[in-house]
Amino acid sequence: MNIINTLKLAKASSLAMALATTSVKNEALEKIAVELENGVQEILRGNQLDLTNAIANGVSQSLQDRIMLDEKRIHALAEAVRVIKQLPDPVGDSVRGMKLQNGLNVQQVRVPFGVIGCIYEARPNVTVDIATLAIKSGNAAVLRGGSAAENTNQILNSLIQSGLKKAGLPAEAICSVDEFGREGAVELMKARDYVDVLIPRGSANLIKTVVAESTVPVIETGSGVVHIFVDESADLNQALPIIMNSKVQRPSVCNALETLLVHEAVAEQLLPLLAQELEASAVTVHACEKSQALIPRSIRATEEDWATEYHSLELAIRVVTGLDEALDHIAEYSTKHTDSILTEDIGNAEKFLAEVDSAVVMVNASTRFTDGGEFGFGAEVGISTQKLHARGPMGLSELTSTKWLVRGRGQIRN
Amino acid sequence: MNIINTLKLAKASSLAMALATTSVKNEALEKIAVELENGVQEILRGNQLDLTNAIANGVSQSLQDRIMLDEKRIHALAEAVRVIKQLPDPVGDSVRGMKLQNGLNVQQVRVPFGVIGCIYEARPNVTVDIATLAIKSGNAAVLRGGSAAENTNQILNSLIQSGLKKAGLPAEAICSVDEFGREGAVELMKARDYVDVLIPRGSANLIKTVVAESTVPVIETGSGVVHIFVDESADLNQALPIIMNSKVQRPSVCNALETLLVHEAVAEQLLPLLAQELEASAVTVHACEKSQALIPRSIRATEEDWATEYHSLELAIRVVTGLDEALDHIAEYSTKHTDSILTEDIGNAEKFLAEVDSAVVMVNASTRFTDGGEFGFGAEVGISTQKLHARGPMGLSELTSTKWLVRGRGQIRN
């Protein structure tokens, strides 16, 4: 078996996936959930192997934790499959339609992409997550997971394939190219004839590599250097909880706050209060020259801090002279994920909404709301920080393309 | 001036373009139309230079014709600008919106991409076309035209910039990188920091190069190996005009018919009649073994013919055993542009619509209807044959991305 054959099998099975009815796809998802539940011991054996290798290779505690599955996590995976099963099926939805003057009936409908490629790091839950999102949206998928989880992924893949088969769908609709090692990833990035779209999931570095090397169209999901600007007119009683929620509620995720910009007119009033709360939550502050004096135990921020996604209990703070300087700072350092203004001035709110070039722009709200679940999409494929195809939180419909259906009775063009 | 500076200027002007109101953009388009009309002599002088060089370099008659502008063509260009001026502005259109349970107001609105790159061949009309589509959709644009038209393009660019300036918009919103030669195209394809999307327009080879070399996201507009399948149950009185219209009405364009597939049960009845009409229209037929006998003066088709976009009065014809063989042929050779079935059998019509993986799939209609104008989009940016972002005819709204606006009153996440 070589990798091209694997890609061909995925492609060949994509038609059956595209034509599968919602109920057959849901049946496959239910079978997969059951396979995962019945396969707990098998999964744990494979996972133990990966963990033993990881420890032998001296990988970090946090990577070990990302690789690790236990009975509870496996049951949570099965339940997540059932959540996706409950979501509405986007395939076949009508996007636009019209009757032309000549009587032609023209309709734009959602269709699956065909084959989705995914390159991700050593997190076995992503294997189940992407596979089930692909199945629900009528796609086949080719997966390339991090090698540190390869034994776990191999078992998860075979359970997923077994679930597909039991529902009468082609097992090869979900394929792994893990066995081909690094070459598998390279071939996947060049497989324009077999793969319709590639979604990298993981670190900024992984995503950067895929964007640079791939000839298959990529949906970039992204890193978030997320900003809040506290305007002169902000309601400071509202500002404190929003800032704290944005920073500490879940600091490891991409919609968490990384840089706080504060209007100089409110800095003296806001920052000492904020400093107390940040300290109580064990947040390390990287402060600009002006703010450092107002924040005890803060570290002096460097140029690098403004461009850093900490993913942890660290926060950069900068005092600015006003909205314009805030907009300039955001234009320079934002990764175009999420930025929020806290203001009671309607003109400044509208200017911020219009001028900040990010996927999600907010007024008086926590940046943690940039999330497929919060937006009501049910599932979260990722947060796109690119402008092509999908921008912001992606749901199942972002895993589809469209096709135009034209029905005539003999029309010809004049 | 180096190329990075040009790209930076385009990027810097994109915010003003994004914020410009519809009436200011329309004013700029009107000024540009007037500049073109007043600049006829200047344009003709530049164009004469290009034509003299082209003749000295021995370029083909058809390329000379594509480069050539005369007074009539320039006035047509100005009129085309006014047509785009009349179209609705997509910027700011609300795509989706909802009020979340916590009271957050969430709205997805259309925004310009920012900077559009375009690489195209020696057709000066594309310069005006892309520039005005970009302006109307609130984008800046960086243009790289074919060097054989560089003198004409230089003058057109300066007239466009002058029109922008007269309407109070930044002249650099439309920039050319022609002066940097082939390096200009290479840099443009790598300019991820400055260019949001790249649209190649021209030959299949040009598009292939851009797709392979670009790290900027590309919208592939495409070549069309377009099929019609005449089913056993087709109304042959309808079939003849549809086939002839699809082939001969404008053979040089991408939605023209290239391969006709005929069910064996109707081949003997249809093909001799069709052969007469094709011969009357001077169409050369490349016929399969079975059809050759039924079509006098046909040439035997080779494997290569099935994959050829003739763009001329040539047609490949193949007799198939039925719908399944037709679907297999289309799956193998279609460029996923447009394919049409002629049938009175509703089951076969629905199967064809569901299984053919092309941007536009038709029943009982001429393939020539795949067109932004026919679909009512007003302007035609191109026909996308890729699945990401846009598929099929692209109008102005396909030159936009979206952004989520979230308006709160202090909400934080639980």
Characterization of this structure:
2 copies of one chain form a homodimer. By secondary structure, chain A is α/β, with parallel strands linked by helices. Chain A has 2 domains: 3-221 and 394-406, 3-Layer(aba) Sandwich (Aldehyde Dehydrogenase, Chain A, domain 1), CATH 3.40.605; 226-369, Aldehyde Dehydrogenase, Chain A, domain 2. Helix content of chain A is 44%, strand content 21%. Chain A has helices at residues 3-19, 22-38, 40-56, 61-67, 71-86, 124-136, 150-166, 181-190, 204-213, 236-248, 264-280, 289-292, 303-306, 323-333, 346-355, and strands at residues 94-99, 105-112, 115-120, 140-144, 174-176, 197-201, 226-230, 257-263, 284-287, 299-300, 314-320, 338-342, 360-365, 382-384, 392-394, 400-411. The first copy, chain A, has a 7-stranded parallel beta sheet with strand order 10-9-11-8-7-12-13. A 4-stranded parallel beta sheet of chain A has the order 5-4-3-6, sandwiched between helices. In chain A, strand 9 (284-287), helix 12 (289-292) and strand 10 form a beta-alpha-beta unit. In chain A, helix 6 (124-136) packs parallel to helix 7. The longest helix of chain A has 17 residues, at 3-19. Chain A is globular and about 65 Å long. The N and C termini of chain A lie far apart (53 Å). The mean pLDDT of chain A is 95. At the A-B interface, helix 1, strand 2, helix 10, helix 15 and strand 13 of A face helix 1, strand 2, helix 10, helix 15 and strand 13 of B. Strand 13 (360-365) of chain A pairs parallel with strand 16 (400-411) of chain B.
